[in-house]
Specification:
About 30% of the residues lie in helices and about 20% in strands. It has a 4-stranded mixed β-sheet, with helices on both faces. It contains 8 helices and 9 strands. By secondary structure, the protein is α/β, with parallel strands linked by helices.
Length: about 230
């Protein structure tokens, strides 16, 4: 039953090492998607990029007819039901983009701390003048960058795997020298023209007032990775 199923992408996650986790999996609607020996992840230079398997792997793109997938980093805790959060974002996208909502493939969490996508995910000092000019022409800076820790994907609107293969290779080859946020650097460029904010945000620990705008009831908690 893939409706409201929880999919855990696990690397070296097994019942011998983590018996309690698998007991929980058995009690809930959890599918363990083992990527330990999966070759697709090996093309990326850092573990943070592995969430790109949602765009590339046959498990998500071919084997199962998934409509929406909400990705959460493992340090995110939902307070509201997932279905409720998905429906809330769908309404937000429809209200915000209207007849152009079909152009939106992905909604993700907005980051208000930097007032610049460049500052949030790129080190411009690592580019030569020609590459910097091309970046500014192809992806002009704007105020709200996005964070890859919470993402809602409309699987039927995503382009083909071949598009992702080619675009990831192109962007990484051209701009990866300036990436300091790994996946978020890549995704902010790759989804520059086809993404939206979620229409809600998350409470961040430790608290950051710069992430608390717009005012929200915080249906999610982002613990920060160490809790």
């Amino acid at each position: 039953n893939w409706s409201e199923c929880i999919i855990v992408m696990g690397h070296e996650l097994n019942a011998e090492r983590f018996p309690f986790a698998f007991q929980v999996f058995d009690c809930l609607n959890v599918h363990h998607f083992d990527i330990t020996h999966d070759s697709i992840k090996d093309r990326f230079p850092h573990i943070h990029y592995w969430k790109a398997l949602i765009f590339l792997h046959p498990f998500f793109r071919e084997h199962h007819h998934l409509r929406y997938v909400m990705y959460l980093d493992s340090d995110c805790i939902t307070i509201k039901p997932i279905r409720q959060l998905i429906e809330r974002s769908i309404r937000h996208i429809g209200k915000t983009y209207g007849e152009h909502q079909s152009d939106i493939w992905l909604a993700w969490r907005e980051d208000y701390r930097h007032n610049s996508m460049y500052k949030a995910v790129l080190n411009l000092n690592r580019y030569d003048s020609e590459t910097l000019n091309e970046l500014q022409r192809e992806y002009p800076d704007y105020a709200q960058s996005k964070q890859g820790n919470v993402m809602l994907m409309d699987m039927r609107r995503l382009p083909a795997v071949q598009w992702f293969d080619a675009e990831i290779e192109r962007i990484m080859k051209k701009y990866a020298a300036g990436f300091w946020r790994n996946d978020q650097s890549l995704f902010n460029l790759m989804f520059y023209h086809n993404s939206s904010d979620l229409g809600w945000t998350a409470f961040t620990n430790p608290p950051s007032e710069q992430l608390f705008w717009p005012p929200d009831q915080f249906p999610m908690v982002h613990t920060g990775g160490h809790q």
